[in-house]
Give the backbone structure.
Amino acid sequence: MLFQLKELCVYYKKSCICQSVSLEVDHGEEICLLGRNGVGKTTLLKSIMRLLPSRSGSIIFDGLDIVHLKPNQVAKLGIGYVPQGRMIFPNLTVLENLRLGTAAQKDKIKAIPELVFDYFPLLKERLQQRGGSLSGGEQQMLAIGRALSSLPKLILMDEPSEGLSAGVTQGLIKILKKLSQEANLTIFLVEQNLDMALEIATRGYIMEKGHIVAQGKAAELQHDDIVKSYLAV
């Protein structure tokens, strides 16, 4: 098992946002976490990266409980993070954005991995272009490329299809599936786009009001009753 959450509780001020969340992700899996807005999905990812503290519970990665680590230490262990809204640095060039990702590499070379350009050749063409001048889809490529620059074992992705056209989203799905299959990358995907999430993931969890309320194979999560109960607006 690569990654586990055990009874994780995360508070925002006095409100318990994530309530005793337990889940697990094995090596090489593509897992999705689904749910409506405001149920705690983004809070959960931020807590995994230790950007938000947890009140109780465990976060086990590669056999190590990481709850007491700092965000940079978590990244160096092999967890990459693509935040909601992409959060690239608009005034830095593509090259500078990618170099920020290499800071979490274990070796001292800190080179941008060739796999970034293998999967996102457009980034190589735009290395000297400022991140803020890229289109939404190109910025998402850059955000993923920056996370890949740390050479992660596990990548956390928060709403990667947000603000993207259907065509760009389909292209992103193909790239993510190839990354998982060819680059031995484990993916944990938070999405509201049900079609995208279940096209990438083989298994998933559904969150409601801070709890995991359903889990199963991707095909099982498409059952009408589950979708109507927990995912319909």
User: Anything to note?
Assistant: The chain has one domain: 3-230. Strands lie at 3-12, 15-25, 30-34, 56-61, 64-65, 79-82, 154-158, 186-191, 203-208, 211-217.
